[in-house]
Amino acid sequence: MENKTSKYLKYAVGEIVLVVIGILIALQINNWNEVKKLEAKTQEYYVQLLDDLNKDVSFAHQIIGKFNNYLNDLTTYTNSYYQDSVITPEEAYKQISELPVLSTSFTFNSSTIETLQNSGDISLIPSEIRNRLIDLKRQQELTIIRANYTNEGKNAIIQNLNPLLGSTTLINRLKHQPKMKEFLKIDENLREVLLVYEGVHRWKSVSEQESVSNFQDMLKEIDTIMRLINTELKE
After folding, report:
1. What is the mean pLDDT of residues 148-168?
2. What CA–CA distance (Å, rounded) separates 59 from 218?
3. Burial 18-33 (b: 16+ CB within 10 A, else e)
4. Are 95 and 77 in contact (CB under 8 A)?
5. Biggest alpha carbon distance in the chain?
6. Closest by alpha carbon to 102, among 65, 63, 162, 154?
7. Contact criterion met (CB below 8 Å) for 109 and 56
8. pLDDT at res. 93
């Protein structure tokens, strides 16, 4: 009787051990699957981040090129004042009126980092990459704020052109209409027009010089972030 009881207990304990082992294995497999899912999700985020960053790189190069072209043209205009030849008001107006006065709006590709932050999945990203992404987003937001601020100053000055000039093409059109030119007396406003244009391009040049510097810093930071992400992707 005792032998039967002992055998039964051993059998029961063995069954319990097998059940426990089975549960542990199942939990381990489940945990392994969850880890794999998170790894796959993180890899997908990396691909999306690289896509956003590549778009920002292209945009940055476009803006830097555009702004540098403007700054070079503005330098050509200002340097003409240091030449020996005399510049007439009409010549100065022609040169400065051909410079662009419209502002360029900035739009960055931050959808993936915003998704990471809003969903809480930002914790999936290693701390070094995470912190650099957050700092980059902050830098981009500050660049937009600064550009908007300087553009407001420039636009306030531009408003003074309307009653003086009417249109930037009006002077050229009036060359064929002497009576209309005499009636409007646009030439009498050239002094004020030139001063307004000078003020506009002062604001615009300061804004775009600062933006170029900011975009160049962004490119360096983006390059570092992309290298870190590519390292994670290779692993």
Report:
1. 72
2. 11
3. eeeeeeeeeeeeeeee
4. yes
5. 131
6. 154
7. yes
8. 84
The whole-angstrom separation of Cα 181 and Cα 188 is: 11
> In sequence order, what DSSP letters do the residues of 100-140 get, joined into one string?
-----------HHHHHHHHHSGGGGS-HHHHHHHHHHHHHH
CB 218 within 8 A of CB 140: yes
- DSSP for 52-91? HHHHHHHHHHHHHHHHHHHHHHHHHHHHGGGSSSPPPHHH
Per-residue pLDDT of 64-102, as tens digits, reads 999 999 999 999 999 998 888 888 888 888 898 889 888
Cα 121 to Cα 36, 117, 126, 128, 219, distances in angstroms: 15, 7, 11, 15, 25
Q: Cα separation of 197 and 202, whole Å? A: 8
What are 220's two structure tokens?
Answer: 């360096």
Structure tokens at 208: 């775009």
CA-nearest of 130, 150, 147 to 225 is 130
Closest to 90 measured CA to CA, from 3, 174, 15, 202: 174
Quote the DSSP letter at residue 172.
H
**Amino acid at the residue 84:** D
* Gyration radius from the chain CA atoms: 33
Residues 155 and 161: beta-carbon distance below 8 Å: no
Which pLDDT band holds residue 234 (cuts at 50, 70, 90)?
low
Helix (H, G, I), strand (E, B) or coil at 169: coil
Integer Cα distance of 11 and 8 in angstroms: 5
**Which helix or strand (DSSP H or E) is residue 190 part of?**
helix 190-234
pTM flag (> 0.85): no
